[in-house]
Amino acid sequence: MGRKLTFAEAVNEAMFQAMEMDKSVICYGLGVDDPKGVYSTTLGLQEKFGKERVFDIPSSENAMTGVAIGAGLRGFRSVMTHQRLDFFLLAMDQLVNGAAKWHYMFGGQNNVPITIRLITGRGWGQGPTHSQSLQAWFAHIPGLKVV
């Protein structure tokens, strides 16, 4: 029988592998450098890969997504973590009209490689603005891949 990992351990291990294999991978978002490591998913990343590749960023969903688009156009592969899926809706223009369409708008000449981690259903209480599950909605946006 294979190893048993929690979801958080699997995400953390995948991040380590991606960052070890590809120096263009950067990881940022709210709390990625926190001692608790975004529910343990980013533990140890900053210590291993440094503050240049793993860093916290101010709470502005639109700005975070804009940074990811710009970084992608400059050859980086962003792994961006948002603490709550609901608040990512503030960045839908950047996502839909920027990142998702870029490849098509410029005849396939450029890609914007971004992995966006959106957290749903974690923590002590969710309430109406922390509990939506919009993955199916995102899957209907041309140019996005939902995993």
UniProtKB/TrEMBL annotation:
Alphabetic keyword roster: Thiamine pyrophosphate
Residue span(s) of domain Transketolase-like pyrimidine-binding: 5-147
Coiled-coil annotated spans: none
What is an example of a Pfam family matching this protein? Transket_pyr
Q: Which InterPro entries match?
A: THDP-binding, Transketolase-like_Pyr-bd
PANTHER family tied to this protein:
PYRUVATE DEHYDROGENASE E1 COMPONENT BETA SUBUNIT, PYRUVATE DEHYDROGENASE E1 COMPONENT SUBUNIT BETA
What protein name does the entry list?
Transketolase-like pyrimidine-binding domain-containing protein
Organism source for this protein?
Answer: marine metagenome
